[in-house]
């Protein structure tokens, strides 16, 4: 039996970012006439222990690696961020809002907007045993709303100490995938980190093949971990701008080439496996205008998600992309 089909029309949405944290964030994305779906920030069953002093993000100029002044730990962007600082670095974890909080947000949005039929992609993570519980709660919630719901399993956050991204490890991947329902009622997908060599892609394909009937999509890619941005202090010494050691996940335009390569490679490899050919790819990484959208679609993305550019430009970025492509969503 084929798994449920993920539908995103038009094929533009947001990715799971700090700018998809609260109800107002999600409402503004939903109400954009240029989006076909909404993705929530990645949540845990009990919420993430977010600490403002430890979990932050910044914007920086990708040409010079010079950061803007200020950092933020909330959806509110740092005051005075500049136009040229189009890239981001973060050492955030997951959302402090638990999964049930997002399910309540979705019910409220459904009551407010009975005429809108956009898919809501609920991004979740946690220990393998929690993923089945997440699915059960999302499926139960789907009976109370008219929005089509989907579940994205985030296996790729680089910022959780002591918990490397499971999507880099075949055995860890299997632990997450083996408990998925054989015949899900809702589309299920996995979010992957940036892969850098063939062995990593092969590991993913090998892990996905036995559970192909449980999966509908792949979201590629998350941020690139182990990146560092330095700033000058009052004495002109260079120091990390983010807290602690300053290392975090990078996104925005510098991520775009590797994201394109990941989408293109995944599309080619899964098309070679009959059991996986049905999988759709949501392309993420460095998209903030029509040209980047077109590139993602050209290499095989079914739909294109916006991350850092949403934080920089606000929900108007979706209209900008639609205007850039003159409303022609397909290549």
TrEMBL record:
<keyword id="KW-0963">Cytoplasm</keyword>
<keyword id="KW-0285">Flavoprotein</keyword>
<dbReference type="GO" id="GO:0005737">
    <property type="term" value="C:cytoplasm"/>
</dbReference>
<dbReference type="InterPro" id="IPR023359">
    <property type="entry name" value="Dihydro_DH_chainA_dom2"/>
</dbReference>
<dbReference type="Pfam" id="PF01180">
    <property type="entry name" value="DHO_dh"/>
</dbReference>
<feature type="region of interest" description="Disordered">
    <location>
        <begin position="61"/>
        <end position="87"/>
    </location>
</feature>
<dbReference type="GO" id="GO:1990663">
    <property type="term" value="F:dihydroorotate dehydrogenase (fumarate) activity"/>
</dbReference>
<protein>
    <recommendedName>
        <fullName>Dihydroorotate dehydrogenase (fumarate)</fullName>
        <ecNumber>1.3.98.1</ecNumber>
    </recommendedName>
</protein>
<dbReference type="GO" id="GO:0006207">
    <property type="term" value="P:'de novo' pyrimidine nucleobase biosynthetic process"/>
</dbReference>
<dbReference type="InterPro" id="IPR050074">
    <property type="entry name" value="DHO_dehydrogenase"/>
</dbReference>
<dbReference type="InterPro" id="IPR033886">
    <property type="entry name" value="DHOD_1A"/>
</dbReference>
<keyword id="KW-0288">FMN</keyword>
<comment type="similarity">
    <text>Belongs to the dihydroorotate dehydrogenase family. Type 1 subfamily.</text>
</comment>
<comment type="pathway">
    <text>Pyrimidine metabolism; UMP biosynthesis via de novo pathway.</text>
</comment>
<comment type="subunit">
    <text>Homodimer.</text>
</comment>
<comment type="function">
    <text>Catalyzes the conversion of dihydroorotate to orotate with fumarate as the electron acceptor.</text>
</comment>
<dbReference type="InterPro" id="IPR013785">
    <property type="entry name" value="Aldolase_TIM"/>
</dbReference>
<dbReference type="InterPro" id="IPR005720">
    <property type="entry name" value="Dihydroorotate_DH_cat"/>
</dbReference>
<keyword id="KW-0665">Pyrimidine biosynthesis</keyword>
<dbReference type="GO" id="GO:0006221">
    <property type="term" value="P:pyrimidine nucleotide biosynthetic process"/>
</dbReference>
<keyword id="KW-0560">Oxidoreductase</keyword>
<feature type="domain" description="Dihydroorotate dehydrogenase catalytic">
    <location>
        <begin position="85"/>
        <end position="326"/>
    </location>
</feature>
